[in-house]
Every structure is written in structure tokens, then in C-alpha cells.
Amino acid sequence: MRRSKRKAQRGVTLIELIVVMAVMIILVVALGYGFVGGLDLQRVSAKRREEYSAIDGVDRQITRLLQSAFLSATATDTNTYFVGQMDEGGQADETGCDRLTFTTTSPAIPTPSLESADDFETQHKARGPIGGMSEVSYGMRAIGSPKGNQSGLFERVQTPSDADNTQGGMESVLSPQIQKIGFQFWNGTDWETAWDTSTTGMHRLPSLVKVTYTLNTATANSRSDNTATHAFIVPIFTSDVTSDNPVSTTTTTTTTSTTR
Fold it and tell me: How far apart are CA 103 and CA 132, in angstroms?
């Protein structure tokens, strides 16, 4: 009688042990899925932070310089200009032209100069002139010879500006993640895909510039390339173009043909 009771107790204990082990296995599997999911979320978050950081840096730099674009009131002044055109010919697409060159008063003093303890002459020799009117150019093609296999969006800054808006100054990669860029210009009534202040009747700044670029968001661990298209609009504070005072493309064309 006692022996049968002991066997029953042992059987119940074994069942309980099996149940506990099953619960533990379920918990371990659940924790494993949670850990893997947490790692994936961390990778995605890091990728998003990197993407937003790249976008924010490019947007702020281009906006800062464009908002202080400057154009002399004298049409014969060749040291100030605003030129948006295709870099190597061809036809602009829906995002606009791929090269923008303009003069601006905004570069001011670069951060390395602010943090440097060198005197003015030493900084001038190392970095060139600081302050004053500058020529800025953005494009996907390097004007000079890039180091190594550098690619992306190139920024060229020359201080002071001169009559040649196709070269000169210091050039660097603003963002290696940008694969394509386009510029459009608001003439008061419509978006233009090109702008040239040397053209008769267009010696004015557009009131708005729309910047559209394709950003490569792939990381080193990505299995495939990922891209994101981003666009933003910059108001040109020094422009006198409005809906009541637009730049007329029709008038420009007529004036040009009559002059010829």
C-alpha cells in the first residue's frame, strides 16, 4: 500500500518537471526572439539616425548659403551671378538642373578658423581668404581632381568670387551619400529648370529654390542598396521676385531674339 503511494507521488513529480522544462523552453525561445528583434530595431534606428543626420547637415548648409545669395544691381558686374544649368549638357529632368553656382555673403568664418589659435596671416596661408563675397557651387561632378575615389555631392567655395564661375576655390565632398541632385527655381508664377543671370532680362534672383536629391541609405551590413528621395525649398531673402513682379520667360525669349 505504501509502495503504490510512493509510485504515484514520483509520477506526479515527473510530470511537473516536464511541464516546468516546457515552460522554460518557451521562455528561452521567446527571449531569443525578443533579443533578435531588439538588435534589428537597434540597427534600423541607427540607420534612420544616420539618414536624418546626413539630410539635416546637407539641408542646413545649402539653406544657409542660398538664403544670403547676392546679385549686384549692376548687370555688367560679372563678379556676382546665379547660374543653374546642366553640368555636362543634356536635358534637365523633373527635378531640374544638376549644377548650381551662385555668389553669397553667407560663408562667414568657417568653424576651423573660429577654433584655431593661429593669427590671421597663418590662417590666410592655410585656408585662403576668410569673409567677404564668395562663390559657391554644388554638383555631382568634381570640378578639380577628387582624392582617391571620392564621389557624392561636391561643394566648391571660392573667396572672393571672380568673373569665372566654372572653377577656383576649395572643393570638398559635402555628402558622399548623395547619388543625384536637382535644382528648380520659382520665377514668381512657375518653376524653372534653369536660371542664368547673364541672360537678357533675367538679372534677378529667383524667389525660391527647390532642392531634390537621392540619398543612398545603405549601410555596411545591408544586403542591398536602399535609396530615399528628399526635397526641400529655400526662400531667397534678397530676391525681388513675387507673383506681382515675376520674371517672364516669354519676355526674356522675345528680348533675346530681338537683340540678335
Answer: 10
- Residue-by-residue DSSP string for 215-242: EE---TT-SS--EEEEEEEEE-TT----
User: What tens digit of pLDDT does each residue of 175-203 get?
Assistant: 998 999 999 999 999 999 999 998 877 89
CB 98 within 8 A of CB 86: yes
Q: Which residues contact 219 (CB under 8 A, 6 or more apart)?
A: 43, 46, 47, 50
- Which of these, 171, 176, 178, lies nearest to 95 by C-alpha position? 178
**Alpha helices, H only, 94-233:** 111-115, 120-127
Q: Which three cell numbers stand for residue 231?
A: 526635397
Q: List the one residue out of 155, 157, 145 whose CA is nearest residue 175.
A: 155
Of residues 162, 250, 137, 243, the one with CA closest to residue 202: 250
The predicted model scores a pTM of: 0.68
Residue 153 contacts residue 175 (beta carbons within 8 Å): yes
